[in-house]
Amino acid sequence: MGASRLNSSKRQIAGRGVARRAFTLIELVTVIVLLSVVVTVALPNYLDYRTQAKSSSERGVVAGIRHGIQSLHARSVIDGTPGYPTSLDTAAPDSAATSDNPFFTNVLATPLTADWKKGAEDNTYISPSGVTYVYAPLTGAFVLESEYAAANPDASTPGLSDALLAGMTPDELAALSDSDLATLTKDQIAALSFDQFAAIAARLSPEQTSWATPEQIAMLSAEDYANLSDAQIAALTDEQLAERAIADGVRAMTRSQFASISPEHIKYLTTAQAATINRTYLAQLSDAQRAALSEAQVQALQLDSYNALAYLTTDQRAMITQTQIESLHRDSFAYLTPSQIAGLTTEQAATINRSYLAKLSEEQRLALTTAQVQSLQLDSYNALAYLSEDQRAEITQAQIESLHRDSFQYLTTSQIAGLTTEQAATINRSYLTQLSADQRSALTTDQVQALQLDSYNALAYLSADQRTEITQTQVESLHRDSFQYLTTSQIAGLTTDQAATINRSYLTQLSADQRSALTTAQVQSLQLDSYNALAYLSVDQRTEITQNQVESLHRDSFQYLNTDQVAVLSSTQVSTLTRSYIQQLSDGQRSAMTQTQIQAITDSVWAESAMYFTAEQQGWR
């Protein structure tokens, strides 16, 4: 029973297994076709995604390289030596980037160590995608080779265009590879400066050496010429050898022979020879010979003698070194640029007096530094006139104390107070008038008491307080125009000689208090012969005048005399009386007139005036 069930189950299972079937051929083909379609559509997109990813990465690297180049350039500008890096790394041409041979070390913080390669030239690079890039040191461009070729059609090799060569320093040229130098053309070699050529001469091929100009060969130093190979020497042309012989002849000369050198051969003098040339030997050279001196030769000259810079051109003067500037005599300062003026030492500035300041242009004087200004000799006539207002404010107390009176007008009020009494003693009215009111007000008591106040109206330029500070000696030196500014106590200090200069006009300038302060001796010295002069004296002062003063009076003043003074009037004075003046006299004054005076009255006046006199006086007629 059990066995039959087991057999029955096995048959059922076997029956179900026979009922299952495999994929048909059509189904398999359909699947394969579908997979082919998927692969055909998806695979290119996948590969394109990989290419785009690599391209994006490459663009990022290129952008980083360009950014690094510009960063270095910006830093060089800040440092004052603008330029682009000569190379991007030290990797050799035809090499691959590895950890031991990294690329772009000069411009990338993390240099490349894989995938990139270097071309046959120093400045060419091949990216992982096979694209060639070229770096141009002259412009800082890092561009596709096709772009570089389009922009530089005359370039002999990437990075060595004529323009690039012209801008390279001798050291940069010397750093070029032999393969770079081998590409230099005849025109490029001939266009090199003497210094550029000397930097690479020994590394040129014999043929390239023969392309050099005769002057380039002649300008090589003895050492550089000795470094040429036998093959190079053998390749030299007759013209090159002839010019070299001339240069050797020039280099064998002493300074006394330099005047015999033609201008075109002056350049062959060595700097050691140029260093023997002082002003005397410069003067012996012609204008053309001096103009032919190179920068290196100019920078070797002895320029410490009188007016030496006068023998150089404007361009040559701009070439001289700081050491030469510091050796110059003051006669040469006028030939310096403003920036060179600032390089003079304080010892040199200390040799500059007014005459040499006047020789400098305004721009040159403005270029003087504070230390230089404070070293100048400012003791000559009007020296401060040649400095700016700011520079005048910088001068030292010692310089202030050395100034001539013509310079006082340029001082600040605080500087005015620093003048010595000896300097103040040189200030007369003319120089007082040059000072501003503020400057005069800044004068100290000691300075005021040292002033020369003996000129016309000098006291008018001092303040009321300053006038009270003047000394008795100054009071006694005053001109009559200044008396009006004195106090009453100072008026009493005037000498009789000064009082003798006071006439009616100057009496009228004095106040009543000032006139009242006149002493008897001063009153007796006054000039009272002008119209109505006695009107300006007090009654008491009128009684003090002398007989001579009475006899000098004008008829307008007779009315102010006492009877005793009337009696001493001269006949000549009385003869000037008219009826009006007789009427001005009091009865007492007329009664005091003597017989001689009565008889001096003219007949016509007497006929009109007899009634004003006494009977006795009338009887005298």
**Terminal Cα span:** 215 Å
Query: Approximately how much beta-strand content do the residues carry?
Result: under 5%
Task: Tell me the helix content.
Answer: 40-55%
Q: Main β-sheet: number of strands, strand sense, barrel status? A: 4 strands, antiparallel
Principal-axis shape: elongated
Give the strand line-up of the largest sheet.
1-2-3-4
According to DSSP, the number of beta strands is 4
Question: Which residue ranges are poorly predicted, with pLDDT under 50 across at least 5 consecutive positions?
Answer: 1-19
Question: Helices and strands: which structural class?
Answer: mainly alpha
Mean pLDDT: 91
Q: What's the gyration radius in Å?
A: 55 Å
Number of helical stretches of at least 4 residues: 47
Task: Present the secondary structure layout.
Layout: H1 2-19, H2 25-78, E1 117-118, E2 124-126, E3 132-136, E4 141-144, H3 145-151, H4 162-167, H5 170-174, H6 178-182, H7 186-191, H8 194-200, H9 206-211, H10 214-218, H11 222-226, H12 230-235, H13 238-251, H14 271-274, H15 279-284, H16 287-291, H17 295-298, H18 314-317, H19 322-325, H20 338-341, H21 346-349, H22 354-359, H23 362-366, H24 370-373, H25 389-392, H26 397-400, H27 413-416, H28 421-424, H29 429-434, H30 437-441, H31 445-448, H32 464-469, H33 472-477, H34 488-491, H35 496-499, H36 504-509, H37 512-516, H38 520-523, H39 539-544, H40 547-552, H41 563-566, H42 571-574, H43 579-584, H44 587-591, H45 595-600, H46 603-609, H47 615-619
